[in-house]
Design a protein that fits this description.
Shape: flat
GO biological process, one term: glutaminyl-tRNAGln biosynthesis via transamidation
Strand order of the largest sheet: 1-2
Number of helices: 4
Pfam families: GatC
Largest sheet: 2 strands, antiparallel
Radius of gyration: 25 Å
Distance between the termini: 47 Å
Protein name: Glutamyl-tRNA(Gln) amidotransferase subunit C, mitochondrial
GO molecular function: nucleotide binding
Keywords: Mitochondrion, Nucleotide-binding
Strand content: under 5%
Structural class: mainly alpha
């Protein structure tokens, strides 16, 4: 049942390539993307806790125009930085790339064409309401 549904989906997805290609089912290494066994964490649990100083908070508020006065906002920021540092420390040498259905096929791309880019009137023609024939006004 699952194999038949996958075949139907792949046949429906032929519009992604320039010509219809027959998919080789022997290329699939796994029957499902969901792990069947527990996956051990790749993260090192020995990361030091990130503490943001008052000066850093002031600078971040000034640069990003975001209010970080609440303790929850600072905690979320610290957790995000800690998570990013864990990801940064993962060793990815000799790691195979993720499997994708289109991995063995070349995707067709359109040719790049250089234009003067002066198409403001064409873009604004689709707008319901414009201001000074320069800006479009989004509906409320």
């Amino acid at each position: 049942m699952l194999t038949r549904n996958l075949k139907n989906l792949i046949q429906l997805r032929t519009f992604c390539s320039s010509k219809k290609k027959i998919f080789d089912w022997k290329e699939i290494k796994f029957k499902t993307k969901v792990p069947q066994e527990t996956v051990k964490s790749q993260f090192s649990e020995k990361t030091e806790r990130i503490k943001i100083t008052e000066n850093e908070i002031f600078l971040l508020e000034k640069l990003s125009l975001v209010d970080l006065e609440r303790k929850e906002a600072v905690k979320v920021l610290e957790d995000s930085i800690e998570f990013a540092s864990k990801i940064h420390n993962i060793n990815t040498e000799n790691v195979e790339p993720l499997y994708t259905v289109l991995e063995n096929y070349q995707l067709t791309l359109r040719d790049d064409k250089v234009t003067d880019g002066n198409i403001k009137k064409d873009v604004l023609r689709n707008a319901v309401k414009t201001e000074e024939d320069t800006y479009f006004i989004a509906p409320k």
